């Protein structure tokens, strides 16, 4: 078996195949998504407010595996190879889309590429870049 | 009782004399080069470092005395090696004969360095097949706490739930055994402990609701011989009538009755620290971690044997005694700190003791034959308990510091859940001074528990716990402690929490590293700084010392900030463009002084 394709199944339930082909709910409430983010223990790795803990921040506008709705859905539903569990089996498609709605509703902060300890702090390093979402693959 | 500072009996020391003759040294180097049999390795030849805690008593004390309080200012780096791995470098190297062995954090590479050649080139390296899923099932960085040498094998755990034995000479994999279930949140960063023909191992996962255990493997084959749960029914805990005799607790099914229904099945009780062994009593001692989840209202009862020390027979795993430091833990006070076996005078009488610096802020001295608490004193600021009742062995609680989802945010609990000292940072004990040497954290926390839902293979926590500095404003220290009086002897405060293990030698030098990347040698009797060097990254590993093939004494330590500091330090990471974090309280400045990076350092005396 190709180990990199192997995922941990959250709750011990394997996710269904072809989930992206299935119907996407017409409305997904970000507030419900926020409570699911806590109830499904997402905050245990990604931190309260998804600001990053042992797992990466999900609100900095930077994404390892892509930041489109479909890519985030795929990350949650099927998991990722560095130990992100596959939640599709235990949550189902609609609940995962609801968490996607929560994450995408978070404001992306301005990118400040410089941390400065000079007098004046980060301001001394010049104006921040414009706020944006970027995909990165480390 | 105060201990004097005068010269102590040699107790058969092989190298207490700094003026040891060249001939003796040459002979010693020759002996050290001969592959050791188990009995030799496990009595720990002074020139070597063959197990995590130096000896079965986990003293981290070396009888080497060529580096002294008089010449320690001449300590200089003589060699470095980048491990190529950025995660937290906990644990310590081993030196067996003329080879140094280094295990990295995940992906758990094992390096074997030839100390007889200039530049210490590799003899070989071992690249195990280890699952990347272990990264996401680890609560607190992908650390490893080291290897154990026994019977010609380097034995260590891979993070993904396997134990391996590698031929110490050739690097060939001799066996590999699955011991843990990654999909259940079990990972395995702890260092195995080998007694006779048993390899004893346990899992992490107190933040994932595991059903905690230890296992005894056969050293020759790697086959699992026994499995003992730390919580649950007597039959699974291996608590047998007639054999299991806890000092304070009476009755059967203690580790089942102290939980609601079957909550023990997701009750945590991990084993991620260190083990000790008393050959006369034939008892292995180890600490058990926290109960799951952190929200204590989901698990009324004492939750035995979480937050406890357990004494077992290595041969069959039978439980002989157990003592619970923190019943019904409300604060994530794992009890997995090193259990140091030493003779300690209590009330004027020398006792065969077990000494531990618990995360809960108390230093405990136990009778290691029975589990009776002989003394317990706070070694850092403590607010959750007023003391330990020696008659019952139980803490006297401050009810205002009890936590739970219904209690909201409970303020100013000291120490923080990082512990008065992290169990990852083991102490040292010098029979010459009679004192213990340990890092400390001077931190308190607010604790807001919330209901938690168990979803297999995901975190099971239920609490937010921001930290702040304790009294004095500094965040850590390194100190000498007298267990016979329950008092601090001297203390060097450090700006940041102190996270390295301790080493002390017959030269009366103590060694430690700091989170902002200094490696320090101090006078073990006074704490006076002898030398310091900036080692490139914060130190969360444990220094060791050994005799090189040239007859000189060396000190080795890892640099490489991480472990909990991967989570807490916020901005010390530079390798992942998808993960940029602001500085975090209360150590905003740490990113100014260090970033990630694994480096092996060796120090020796300069001219």
Please sum up the structure shown.
Helices cover 30% and strands 3% of the residues of chain A. With 138 residues, chain A is mainly alpha-helical.
Biggest sheet of chain B: strands side by side, in what order?
1-33-34-35-36
Strand order of the largest sheet of chain A: 1-2
Please give the share of residues in helix of chain B: under 10%
- List the secondary-structure elements of chain A in sequence, H or E: HHEHHHE
How much strand of chain A? under 5%
Judged by helices, strands and strand pairing, the structural class of chain B is mainly beta
Amino- and carboxy-terminal Cα gap of chain A? 24 Å
Estimated radius of gyration of chain A: 17 Å
Description of the structure:
The complex is a heterodimer of chains A (138) and B (607). By secondary structure, chain A is mostly helical. Chain A has 5 helices and 2 strands, in the order H-H-E-H-H-H-E. The longest helix of chain A has 12 residues. The C terminus of chain A is likely disordered. The longest helix of chain B is centred in the N-terminal third of the chain and has 12 residues. In chain B, the strands form 10 sheets. A 5-stranded mixed sheet of chain B has the order 1-33-34-35-36, with no helix packed on it. Chain B has a 4-stranded antiparallel sheet with strand order 2-39-38-37, with no helix packed on it. A 4-stranded antiparallel sheet of chain B has the order 3-4-5-6, with no helix packed on it. Chain B is built from 7 helices and 39 strands. Helix content of chain B is 6%, strand content 33%.
Layout of helices and strands:
The complex is a heterodimer of chains A (138) and B (607).
Chain A lengths: L29 H10 L2 H5 L15 E2 L5 H10 L9 H4 L1 H12 L29 E2 L3
Parallel strand pairs in A: 1-2
Helix pairs in contact in A: 1-5, 3-5
Chain B lengths: L21 H12 L4 H5 L18 E2 L12 E8 L11 E3 L2 E5 L6 E5 L7 E5 L6 H4 L11 E3 L2 E6 L3 E6 L5 E6 L14 E3 L2 E4 L11 E6 L5 E6 L4 H4 L16 H4 L17 E4 L4 E5 L20 E5 L6 E6 L15 E7 L2 E9 L4 E6 L5 E6 L6 E4 L6 E3 L11 E5 L14 E3 L4 E7 L1 E7 L13 E2 L2 E3 L6 E7 L4 E8 L8 E3 L3 E5 L4 E6 L5 E6 L9 E4 L5 E7 L4 H5 L21 H4 L5 E7 L2
Parallel strand pairs in B: 1-33
Antiparallel strand pairs in B: 2-39, 3-4, 4-5, 5-6, 7-8, 8-9, 9-10, 11-12, 12-13, 13-14, 15-16, 16-17, 17-18, 19-20, 20-21, 21-22, 23-24, 25-28, 26-27, 27-31, 28-29, 28-30, 31-32, 33-34, 34-35, 35-36, 37-38, 38-39
